[in-house]
Amino acid sequence: MIERIGRRSEQEGYSKSRLPAWSAEEVEFVRGTHDYFGLNIYTALAVQGIDEPGFGGSASYYNDKGTSTSSRADWTKSVASWLVSYPYGMRGLLNYVWNHYTPGEIYVTENGWASEADISDQLRVDYLQGYLSNMLDAILEDGVQVSGYTTWSLMDNFEWARGYTALANDELGDATKIFPDNFFIGVGSAAYQVEGAWDIDGKGPSWWDYYLNQGISRTADGKNGNEAADHYHKYKEDIDIMKNIHAEYYRFSISWSRILPTGFANETNQAGIDHYLDVLRTLKENNISAAVTLYHWDLPENLEQYGGWLNEQTAVWFGEYARLAFELFGEYVDYWLTINEPHVFCLGGYGSYNGMGFMSPGQSDPNATKIYQCSKVALLAHATAYHIYDEEFRARQGGKITLVTDSSWYEPISNDTKDLEAWDRELQFQLGWFAHPVYLGNWPQVMIDRIGERSKGEGFATSRLPELSPEEIDFIKGTFDYFALNTYSSTLIGWADDAPISEPSYDLDTCVYATSDPSWQAAEVGYVVSWPMGIRKLVNWINDNYNPGEIFVTENGWTSDDSLEDNDRYVYLNGYLKNILDAIYLDNVPVTHYTVWALLDTFEWGSGYTVKFGLIDVDFESENKTRTYKQSARWFKTVAQHRCLGTLAARKFPDEFLFGAATSAYQIEGAWNEDGKGENIWDKFLHDASKFSIAWSRILPNGTINSINRKAIDHYAKLIKGLVEAGIEPLITIYHWDMPEYISQLGGLLNIQFVDYFEDFARLLFQEYGSYVKYWFTINEPHAVCSGGYGSTLVAPGLNLVGDGLYQCSYILLKAHARVYHIYDEEFKPNYGGKVGMALNTNWFDPTTDTAEDIEAQERVLQFMASFLMCLGWWANPVFLGNWPQIMIERIASRSALEGFARSRLPVFTQEEIEYINGTSDFFGLNSYKVYDVSNSESPIGSPSYRLDMGATWDSTNPQSRPEKFRSLIKFINGRYQPGSIMISENGLQTDDHLDDQDRISYMSGFLNSVLDAIELDNINVFGYTAWSLMDNFEWGSYEPKFGLIRVDFESANKTRTWKDSARWYQNLIATRSLEN
Question: Would the keyword Zinc-finger be found if you checked this record's keyword annotation (predicted)?
């Protein structure tokens, strides 16, 4: 500064520098006037030098600097133009200050984010978390002494020149995330949408059964609810799911025509009654409360013949149905809901309203009178049921009852008087239409006035909105014990000039301009967008206008595609639930229940099965209607179990879960045997387990028992004992691809004597180390051994015997494995109690398309074989089920015969061999890394090849991570082979040579989340995870692939080890047994 400003000042014509000079006394007076360094940091800039600015014009601080600054496109921007998020800038600046000024300690005195006036300030959370994380890196890894951190700011401020437009507050604390004691979270469904069983056990047809079984396509996919999710037969499985995810209550509906087939109370169906009694009893046995809807849009078809919801007598029949339900089921029900969303079925069923697709009974309403008549009858029916319960059942059952209303939040597009008038009108026509009569009495005045005026102009003698008599007003008013609200979305509302009188229409009766904010995320269906603040505003509006005493959110949910990784759903639910808690804590709104719609993917009325709302995926094409947990189900479980709202944050592994890192003898021992480096890293790094192999030729130099190397035995003994003393479980692989050369010369894995040599080696290891080792892997990746060594030239011994050599290898390896298993089981397990298994390698294969051919190809690959590093059924079937997979037996035999062989190229097991091999595993060891898209590929008969035997192909150059598919693989293994327990014996990512390996952290985190999903949601016993690999290895053909958590400098004499970021991450994971999402 002294030099540049002085030079530029002189060239600009000043007699002295524009920068005042300090006297020596001033320098000394100012210097050292600190006890700490106070640092305000917010943003970052990309800086570059520029050509020396000219000296014309005004002198400038910016010209004095001689730099140009800008913001990078990938940095997140705030509402303040100068403020962007680049969290590493915090660490960089703290290091700069520490190294240049050595202040002794640093206090971060301001750090914060500017946002809009939005309570849902996730960007602020992300910013603060990122900057704090980098501050901790500076403290823990760089040795910078940071003693304090101040968030700017506690509350929204007057921000100088920006006034009140840039908000930086951190008003809402963690307390708002904890559920009050009287707040409960549950899941919902409806009879027609999930039950199926439409015409069995005495059920009568509903109007939806009739409407969708006329041979006319009336839904988006042309389908109906005849089978749906088969909840009628699978309700116990579904209640188990509710229990597993800690749902506190279940909102479901009774099918009117299942207990009263004709709709009339004179004919009951005992099978239907018994069904619902068993549902309710099962819920009670599992401590799940019941919230029961009497009517969720499935009117008995017989009553539609009498006019349905246009006939006021339906209100009487509904009362008789309700009385029967109260009598039969009332002792099990805490909350009753009379009618679900009459607004929707009146508009949709009698006005052909297409907001959610056409609905039963699908009547048009050119005069716009049926919709209003329907609403009157529905209100009378509700009130009838309410009074019956209140007068006949409340005293002895003690439940609560109300009507279910639905509404989006309607946000005024501006504060203009006309826009506010339109906004209020929309709320009254939407929500007030049914709430006003129940909570205040009569229709909303704006509906009475507008529909009356327009009806008169349209030539009607009376209003199209039926008048409620004083007796009817009194009968309906006050028929609530709480407010039941279904809400999904938000809409911007503005003024629209009144349309001229023309055809009668509900939309013209309302007459508003509706649009959406483009920043609001849209769901898969057009009627749902995400603006979480909307639900807070809506429940406040309800509380202010109706004062119901208690609000029960009976539906709220998000629709997404068919993915199990439904992050958008739990982000939506998390945001909406957070705003409900804000309404409770900050606004004193009495919300007591929150229902996620829906437990299962359902039949979604006019949308058919094209719309997915479920926490649980349902495979509607499968005979069993298979259920699979989505990520959102895990979110729900975490939230419900802990009664605390958050993101998918720390997930705890079971206490007995083993974490480890793996190596193999040949891949590291060249460096590992120097100065004890390997042992020191393990002692420092691991806490649970270490998987490594013992070099056969180091113990038995020529591979046979007559040449024992005692020094090598002592070396491994020292290592194994050291691990045990350090509290680390040794996981020992007996054979990891390093066959003694002498054994190879004798024929290796094509010589049946290999089984005897392997038995001798294994018995020696059991004798020497059995008292210390609880987990043994006989063979690591036998498929890679055979396909790589005898089906290609990639792995020693490099014999390209693709037609039959690798099958002979497989036959001998399986017999060798079984021999060693039986030796341990009979001679050593009684004393040592260990377990023996085999580490099988496979990746997951997805069918490239949904065609039957590609799906069959997927099955062949999983059952059969794959490329150099992939297989499953080839090895698992003989060990866990007995014999080769049938598809292998048949396809190889068929192709062998066509190729001219006298017998199959696949060796035939005798019955004795099948029984000897079957069951020779105490757990399933799984090595897995990637996902491939597989497709059918039948090849003509030619040269024999195991790839052609399989009849499938995939792009081996384009593997995918897709960690969510790891769960699919674990489920497949558990379901197909039922091994009892599974150990992930290898999983890792190959990267280039960099220490900042965030890609590896992301990869491992994704796969471990899938492991936890399998444990928590699928109840699969996965008991350990081994990262491949502890350190960078010789990866068979090359040192280039880097799998290690720790870098090894193979060029240095000392083979220097350096921890990568993934090593620190994994160390923290093991120490906390907690996985951050």
Answer: no
Convert 37-75 to b/e letters by CB count within 10 Å (16 or more is b): bebebbbbeeeeeeeeeeeeeeeeeebbbeeeeebeeeb
866 vs 842: CA distance, rounded Å = 8
Q: Respond yes or no: is residue 555 known to be catalytic.
A: yes
Model confidence pLDDT, tens digit, residues 780-799: 999 888 888 888 777 788 88
Token readout for 149 is 């951190």
List CB contacts of 916: < 8 A, sequence separation 6 or more. 815, 818, 822
Handedness of CA 176, 178, 182, 188 (dihedral sign): positive
Per annotation, catalytic residue among 341, 426, 565, 729: 341
Q: List the catalytic residue out of 301, 304, 426, 555.
A: 555
Contact predicate 966/879, CB 8 Å: no
Residue 856 annotated as catalytic: no
Distance of CA 505 to the CA centre of its chain: 43
Q: Which of 312-321, 534-543, 648-657, 942-951 has the lowest mean pLDDT?
A: 648-657
Q: H-type helices in 21-87, by residue range?
A: 24-30, 61-65
What CA–CA distance (Å, rounded) separates 329 from 128?
52
Alpha carbon distance 666, 159 (integer Å): 64
Query: For residues 89 and 418, what is the distance between their CA atoms, to the nearest angstrom?
Result: 48
3-state percent breakdown (helix, strand, coil) of the chain, nearest 5: 40, 15, 40
- Provide the pLDDT for residue 958: 54
Task: Tell me whether domains 184-642 and 658-1072 share a fold.
Answer: yes
| pTM of model > 0.70 | no
What are the residue ranges spanned by the domains of the chain?
Answer: 34-162, 184-642, 658-1072
State the Cα–Cα distance between residues 718 and 154, nearest whole angstrom. Answer: 58
Contact 912, 969 (CB under 8 A): no
State residue 624's pLDDT score.
92
CATH classification for the domain delimited by 184-642, as one of 3.40.50.720, 3.60.15.10, 3.30.499.10, 3.20.20.80: 3.20.20.80
Quick one: angle between helices 677-685 and 710-725, nearest 10? 20
d(C-alpha 179, C-alpha 643), whole Å: 5
Helices (H), ranges, 161-250:
191-194, 207-211, 231-244
Q: For residues 758 and 820, is the Cβ–Cβ distance under 8 A?
A: yes
Backbone angles phi, psi at 1066, to 5 degrees: -70, -35
C-alpha 636/C-alpha 642 separation (Å) is 10
* Of 304, 604, 729, 781, catalytic: 781
Assess contact for 856 and 862: CB atoms under 8 A: no
- Tokens found for residue 998: 């965030």
Neighbours of 625 (CB within 10 A): 21
Would you call the peptide bond into 364 cis, given omega within 30 degrees of 0 as the criterion?
A: no
Alpha-carbon dihedral sign for residues 428, 430, 431, 434: positive
What are 280-319's pLDDT values in tens digits? 999 999 999 999 999 999 999 999 999 999 999 999 999 9
Tokens of 602: 């359902």
CA nearest neighbour of 422 among 506, 512, 517? 512
User: Is residue 656 annotated as a catalytic residue, yes or no?
Assistant: no
More confident residue, 860 or 899: 899
Q: Is 781 a catalytic residue?
A: yes
User: pLDDT of 18-72, one tens digit each?
Assistant: 999 999 999 999 999 999 999 999 999 888 777 666 655 567 787 888 887 777 7
How far apart CA 809 and CA 783 sit, in angstroms, is 9
Cβ neighbours for 1045, distance < 8 A, ≥ 6 positions apart: 661, 685, 1000, 1027, 1029, 1030, 1031, 1059, 1060, 1062, 1063, 1066
The CATH code for residues 658-1072 is 3.20.20.80
Q: Is 824 exposed, middle or buried (0-12, 13-18, 19+ CB in 10 A)?
A: buried
SS3 (DSSP) at 578: helix
Verify cis geometry, omega within 30 degrees of 0, for the bond prior to 797.
yes
